Structure formats: C-alpha cells, structure tokens
Amino acid sequence: MSEAACARLGEWPALAGAKRVAVYAAVAGEIDPEPFASRIRAAGGIVCYPRVGGDACLSFHESTALRPGPLGIPEPAEDAPQVPIESLDLVVVPGVAFDAAGRRLGQGKGYYDRSLPQARGTTVGLAYDFQVVPEVPHAATDFVLDLVVTDRRVIGSRA
C-alpha cells in the first residue's frame, strides 16, 4: 500500500515539479514515504526530514542518516543541513486519521500544526485509505492540508 500511495503522490500533476521535498520516517505502522523520497532523490531533488526543535516546532534537514530523536522518532542529526520550510515545494505529513477537508489527527503534540503555517509549498497527508474518515475533530489551531493522498485516491482542496 505504501508503494501505491507513493506512486500516486509522484504522478499527481500538481506535484510533478517538486524538487525540495520534506517527508517523515514512518513509525508504528504509518504508511512509508520512502519510495517517494527515493524517486525524488533519483531525479536530483532534495529530501528533508523533520527534527523536533526546542520551540516545539519542526525544522527540516537534508539527510539520509537518521537516528532516534527525543520522541523515539528517527530524525536527522543536529549538524545536518537545515532547509527552511518556506523553501520546500512539498511537505508530506503523517497522521492517524484524515478527512476530505484536509484536516488531520496527529499524535497530539501539535508539532506539524505549529510548523506548517510557514510552509509555502503544497502540504500533503500520506495515508492508507482506511485512515480517511467522514470528519476529523478539529480546533482553530489545527493546520488544514492541501491534499490527502492514499493508496487508492487523492482528495482535498487541490485534488
């Protein structure tokens, strides 16, 4: 299913020109964006991964060498080159659940919700199709994604 979702993500016309991309290291059964990341690297693009910062926001770093961070999630080393979120063409985001409006339910810490408002590129939730539900509970501080890409479909405001 990860391969199918990543293929769909890579073939979506609005995302075809993405050269600076942020993905995440899959944990706890999350859909794995690595097939998509490999495709970006093979095309000469830059792939970044998030690091948890002291300000409870994420910073994004170009690296393939990941190690467990403070939350046990693999992340780049502190000295990995940082790429400003504003310069990313695409930010791929994990989640527990998503809805057709682009709302997501994360792990509850709010890192992506605090970080993504600075993104100028397209924001995409990558998910198994069974993770798409009729409505995700949300608050005014929750960031709404542009698209949700699953192993079966693309949904959202830019779909």
Key features of this structure:
159 residues; alpha/beta; Rossmann fold; two-stranded antiparallel ribbon
Give an account of the 3D structure:
The chain is of the alpha/beta class. The protein has a single domain (2-156), classed as 3-Layer(aba) Sandwich (Rossmann fold), CATH 3.40.50.10420. The protein has 3 helices and 12 strands, in the order H-E-H-E-E-E-E-E-E-E-E-H-E-E-E. The chain has helices spanning 2-11, 34-42, 111-115, and strands spanning 20-22, 46-52, 58-62, 66-68, 74-76, 82-83, 90-93, 97-98, 104-105, 122-127, 147-150, 154-156. The strands form 3 sheets. It has an 8-stranded mixed sheet. Strands 4-5 form a two-stranded antiparallel ribbon. A hairpin with a 5-residue loop joins strand 4 (66-68) and strand 5. The longest helix is centred in the N-terminal third of the chain and has 10 residues, at 2-11.
Produce a short descriptive summary.
The chain is α/β, with parallel strands linked by helices. It has helices at 2-11, 34-42, 111-115, and strands at 20-22, 46-52, 58-62, 66-68, 74-76, 82-83, 90-93, 97-98, 104-105, 122-127, 147-150, 154-156.
CATH architecture: 3-Layer(aba) Sandwich
Q: Supply the number of helical segments.
A: 3
Percent range of helical residues:
10-25%
The largest β sheet comes out as: 8 strands, mixed
Number of domains: 1
CATH homologous superfamily heading: NagB/RpiA/CoA transferase-like
CATH fold name = Rossmann fold
Class per helix and strand makeup: alpha/beta
Overall mean pLDDT? 91
